[in-house]
Amino acid sequence: MSNGDRKNGIPATVTSIPLVDPHAASADPSIGELVKDATAQMSTLVRAEVELARAEITRDVKKGLTGSVYFILALVVLFYSTFFFFFFVAELLDTWLWRWVAFLIVFAVMVLTTAALALLGYLKVRRIRGPRKTIESVKETKAAFTGQGAARAAEPVVPGKAPAPTDPSGW
Fold first, then answer.
1. Which residue segment(s) compose the domain that 68 sits in?
2. pLDDT per residue over 121-130, tens digit each?
3. Contact 149/140 with Cβ under 8 angstroms?
4. What are the start and end residues of every segment in region (Disordered) (predicted)?
């Protein structure tokens, strides 16, 4: 094709039409081509599955957040409603007792309830010990990779004496 056949960089005539798709797979592909195609298809499939999972998780997280906001709002309304309940109890006691004694009783019950719940919370929090199994597992893994596992096994074990930690941080 000569330059005279071109207009604006586009050929005016096509000298040949391709009869075969250059991107089509050959009729008898080699094992390497089959493995390459299978790998590419698996990669595409995994990416699509990850994207689907991400979309589903995002949707579920949004629904969960919306639901938790409603629960929080319900708890706030309940929290502010307790004032009216305690005022009602004090007014009810006022029918049998002096007014100041009725309100003092309600106040004392509220303080005792608060102290009891705080004590229960403290007892629960005090028992938290941290991820001991995880720390022990990490120590074992570190010992296995650094070769200290065989050296520790060779050391004699003295009853009543804890082995000296090799790392001051406890890890």
1. 29-138
2. 999 988 888 7
3. yes
4. 146-171
